[in-house]
Amino acid sequence: MGFGMVGSEVARRAKGLGMHVIAHDPYAPADRARAIGVELVSFDEALASADFISLHMPLTPATKKILNDETFANMKKGVRIVNVARGGVIDEEALVRALDAGIVAQAALDVFTVEPPSKDSKLIQHENVTATPHLGAIHTFTNTLRMIVQEGVAIEVAEAVVGALKGELSATAVNAPIVPAEVLSELKPYVVLAEKLGRLAVQLVAGGSGVKSVKVTYGSARAPDVLDTRLLHAMITEGLIEPISSVFINLVNADFTAKQRGLQIAEERILLDGSPESPVEFIQVQIANVKSKFASAISDSGEIRVEGRVKDGVPHLTMVGSFEVDVSLVLINNSTVRLEVSTTLSYQLDILYWPKSHLI
Q: What are phi and psi for residue 349, nearest 5 degrees?
């Protein structure tokens, strides 16, 4: 219940344990759930189906005592409940009655309506309840331990802010695609490639503002439910929009700005044979129904096409139009790009003579 950052991470771990995971969150995007392999369901369906219910929702007028006598009656007998959200989302007296009746087999709680709970609380004393202190209300901790915890949180926040100001990707952003830190590290060179391909493709258009239809193709040996392309999609969108927009574009507003401009971006995933060691073998960006500044950028099927791969951790441009190339894009001083041409072409391609500013 609740499918934000914490709920998503719990879902990933539950999937790793072989569990079938469903989620209820009226605000969760369906693509994020699909990327993790989670099914979004209604509140009533979640209550009736779940063997384990983990709560990750804020306390609002709509969620206050959302688990009560009525909702407990609609649950499977023997359900287990974990609440690490807010104490007020559960009617604690109703939970005690559900525990006594055997509807709830066990409850694990680190949040309570009143924190810390009283020592004679029936809920805390119940034999089928496991209770731990809420980090945000560490009244029972020593002053030294409290200072250690708060200092650690402060340092983590400061490091995240510094990284964001430097333009680095973050695994803790709440209003951008949520990607675990280990996945973020693996995807980093592909994120650079994705942004550059989007930026490159739109600058090949004669009059970039006329771009309305884009197709992105990912080639990968990883199954679709394993490969999470949301971050790559966001970076391609940023690359497509930023050169033709008068406003500052980033991961947060790229999709919104694209929709405002009427830009439709379709995705296709091609499952390749071989070992899935690399998350993506290639990324291809096609822009349809436009004219190009460069005839060689038009594919045989009539679209502007650019394709790239990551080689030894470096993004490479490997196709322009119908021509195969091998161009390493290396960022220097955050402002210029060096092109290293590593193949000899039998055709003279305009791509090899672009000003550096076209690739910034």
A: -100, 135
Pairing of strands 79-83, 104-109: parallel
The whole-angstrom separation of Cα 351 and Cα 357 is 13
CA distance 191 to 235: 6
Active site residue 156: no
Asked if 80 is an active-site residue, the reply is: no
What span, in angstroms and rounded, lies between the C-alpha atoms of 178 and 181? 9
Query: Rounded distance, CA 317 to CA 285, Å?
Result: 11
- Give the integer Cα–Cα distance in Å for 243 and 249: 9
- Tokens 């719990």 label which residue? 10
Active-site residue, selected from the candidate residues 134, 222, 233, 305: 134
Q: Which residues on adjacent β-strands are paired with residue 39?
A: 22
List residues bridging with 320 in a β-sheet. Answer: 306, 323
Residue 200 neighbours by CB distance under 10 Å:
25
Q: Which candidate in 9, 39, 93, 115 is catalytic?
A: 115
> Contact at 8 Å (CB) between 44 and 72?
no
Query: Distance (Å, rounded) from C-alpha 214 to C-alpha 267?
Result: 9
Question: Can you give the pLDDT of all 360 residues of the chain as single tens digits?
Answer: 998 878 888 998 898 888 999 999 988 877 778 778 888 999 999 999 999 999 998 888 889 999 999 999 999 999 999 998 888 899 999 999 999 999 999 999 988 888 888 888 899 889 999 988 766 545 445 566 667 777 877 888 888 788 767 656 555 666 666 666 667 778 888 989 999 999 889 888 886 557 888 999 999 988 777 777 888 888 899 888 888 877 777 777 778 888 888 888 999 999 888 777 888 999 999 999 888 878 888 888 888 999 999 998 899 999 999 888 888 876 533 333 344 433 333 333 444 444 434 433
Q: Answer yes or no: 186 catalytic.
A: no
